[in-house]
Amino acid sequence: MSVPDFQAIMLPLLHLTEDGGEHTLAEAVGAIAAGFHLSPGDLAERLPSGKQSRFANRVGWAQTHLKKAGLLIQPGRGRFVITPRGAGVLAEHPSEITMASLMQFPEFVEFRRSASGVHGGGGPIVPPGVAELDPQEQLDRSYQGIRQVLAQDLLQKMKDCAPSFFERLVVDLLVKMGYGGSFKDAAQAVGQSGDGGVDGVIKEDRLGLDLVYLQAKRWQGTVGRPVVQGFAGSLEGFKAHKGVLITTSKFTPDAHDYVSHIGKRIVLISGEQLAQLMIDHGIGVTEVETYVVKRLDLDYFEDNG
Q1: Rounded Cα distance, 281 and 173, in Å
Q2: What is the spatial distance between Cα 174 and Cα 98, in angstroms, rounded to a whole number?
Q3: Total-model pTM
Q4: Residue-wise burial string across 9-20, b where 16 or more C-beta atoms lie within 10 A, e elsewhere
Q5: In angstroms, rounded to a whole number, what is the distance separating the alpha carbons of residues 166 and 275?
Q6: Pairing, β 125-126 against β 198-203
Q7: Rounded to whole angstroms, what are the CA distances from 54 to 47, 86, 92, 145, 265?
Q8: Which parts of 36-134 fold into alpha helices (H)?
Q9: Which tens digits make up the pLDDT trace of 155-182?
């Protein structure tokens, strides 16, 4: 038997958790492989990178999709458990769980929207109709899909972490982006104000020729114009003209419109943008694989006489 795709794995994976206990991915791989009667050869099949078995990779993506739909949760590192919603799905005795059936859950719809309509079917996430794309575009679309999943996971981690850790995370990112001089300088500047609607001040460049005023909060719900106006007013009190407002949620269109029509330069960074910046600058993430894409060098063959 060939290795099943991740959609075929989702229902057996959910059944594995119906005892209400915590389970690990390694445990799931073994149990589900036995259920599919996979041969040693099937289990030995690896991804093109050679670093992971294809079946384990697909079990991992099945788990990801069930979590995004709210059928599983992850109470700790490397462990997952069924949710009341997941138990409710099993109570309906479905014959299968597919991408289409998960679209009934708003969280999964949002996940699909954020991931630009791409979904998993092995290692990289591959969008519908991908077979119609050329290999270069397939790779690019797959990479963007994986990146979006990572960004969402980062955002959830930021929402769960302690306020002090979130402040340190912001400092790490700003220093990596070239602001604040050294980490020590930035850490001393950020979080020192604590009043007037400003959380900290950081150098715009290593020489400190200009200062940027910061406010970084894990607001609940969408951040609207009143919060941004308050921050702009705080800058006025410091006679400052540059500020960065960071949130783990989103800003309303009205908030964006406001900063585009005032004299001060205020940059709004939403949770999704913050996660993307963390990926770009290597904060809270680790490299798994690197692919180098090459093309034909026509200049090399120009003089072939």
Answers
A1: 7
A2: 41
A3: 0.71
A4: bbbbbbebbeee
A5: 12
A6: unpaired
A7: 5, 25, 30, 18, 49
A8: 40-44, 54-68, 84-91, 99-102, 106-114
A9: 989 988 888 888 888 888 888 888 876 6
